[in-house]
Amino acid sequence: MGDKEEVKLLGVWYSPYAIRPKIALRLKSVDYDYVEEDLFGSKSELLLKSNPVHKKVPVLLHNVKPIIESLNIVEYIDETWNSSGPSILPSDPHDRAIARFWSAFVDNKWFPALRAAAITKSEDAKAKGIEEVEGGLLRLDEAFVAISKGRSFFCGDVIGFMDICLGSFLVLLKAREKLKGEKLLDESKIPSLCKWADEFLSDDIVKNVVPEIDRVAKFLGELEAIAQSASRS
Amino acid sequence: MAERSEEVKLLGMWASPFSRRIEIALTIKGVSYEFSEQDITNKSALLLQLNPVHKMIPVLVHHVKPISESLVILEYIDDTWQNNPILPQDPYEKAMARFWAKFIDEQICVAAMNVVGKTGEEKDAAVEATRDLLKFLEKELVGKDFFGGKNLGFVDIAATLIAFWLMRTEEIVGVKVVPVEIFPEIHRWVKNLLANDVIKKCIPPEDEHLRYIKDRMVKLNIKPA
């Protein structure tokens, strides 16, 4: 008789990074306890103890051991529950390298450009930043066409690593569209990626895991208001 | 007779820590490769074609396909050649190794670069910030010969950036960021690295390396602190 696995995920409802392990756990049909952290209030003892270096979410606790950084967590889930559910990473080493390359692009280049454009007060910097974000989406659209070879998702007919990585930002993009009118998911410019985005967001697992666009838009609006009043005082 | 597509080519640069990482990994695995020295100040058409997104070295070409980003290449090498594993086998240990390697590249590397060319209070703050990050790695080495345990592993390969770039260039940059009094474990680890045959073979020769860095600093108009 095996011990019951204890799987706990620390996250916040609005974080794209926290969405990633949720999708992965559900793809593998792993039961888990979810703990909502309050990053604006005070971080829990468990979070501070589990991620002393960055003190950030998400953190996965598997039988008390903490795993940190969202893509690391996804790979860990894939390797640990490898006999359950679909493979999240492809099996071919070159395909895996491509998935890791583009996910590093998304996390290290593309999203930081979006975050910088969102925060900056300089109109010039904002315009430049958005240009970089749009350029990145064009590259991702090309990459999607090349890698997917006509299938619905990056590496096949089922959601995988690259889909989880980029897909976790889609609700945020749509929320920004609602709030700011900025149409980054432009069908005329990135038709294949937009089609992929629709497929991703209509997937049964994803639907139940991502926050509502309206809720995120409202939250972003509130954050903006706080930032603006802080800069005035 | 090996097929052409079996050939392994590495586009790199002799003084780059990221390029040397790949040479270390290929050497650990016993994989022969053709090295193509790139001029990063005047990028070749080949480099731009093989890495259009970042236009940077290193790029590994295997089965005619290019792979870029040093940590991605290291994982590819470990996935492709299974002898002498670089990453731990246990998923938890693997996750920790990936975390530390990223920490080195995204936090320590950036903080250390921030020290160069600064003076006075700014310099002191930059040094403190780098040391605060290095203290995490110092703790990781307690009771171990290498980050990978008994043998060189993924984190050691990534951390050669600290041993042979950050620490080697302290005198040139004019500030001792990693003194032995604060970081005895890291210093002990560097001694272990220097006794390792693969490392000895794969790191840039010290004199030539220091001359290169001095030249670069002059060209970029950076004065030692």
Explain the overall architecture.
The complex is a heterodimer of chains A (233) and B (225). Chain A has 233 residues and is α+β, with helices and mostly antiparallel strands. In chain A, 58% of the residues lie in helices and 7% in strands. A four-stranded mixed sheet of chain A has the order 2-1-3-4, with helices on one face. In chain A, strand 1, helix 1 and strand 2 (33-36) form a beta-alpha-beta unit. With 225 residues, chain B is an alpha+beta fold. Chain B has ten helices and four strands, in the order E-H-E-H-E-E-H-H-H-H-H-H-H-H. Chain B has helices at 17-29, 45-50, 70-80, 91-113, 120-140, 154-166, 170-173, 184-194, 197-202, 206-219; strands at 8-12, 34-37, 59-62, 65-68. Chain B has a four-stranded mixed sheet with strand order 2-1-3-4, covered by helices on one side. In chain B, helix 1 packs parallel to helix 3 (70-80). Chain B is globular, with a radius of gyration of 18 Å.
> Can you tell me the CATH class of the largest domain in chain A?
Mainly Alpha
What order do the helices and strands of chain A follow?
EHEHEEHHHHHHHH
Pair of chains with the largest interface and how many residues each contributes: A-B, 23 and 24 residues
Tally the helices of chain A: what do you get? 10
Q: Kindly estimate the percentage of residues of chain B that lie in beta strands according to DSSP.
A: 5-15%
| CATH A-level architecture of the largest domain in chain A | Up-down Bundle
Mean of pLDDT of chain A: 93
Mean pLDDT of chain B: 94
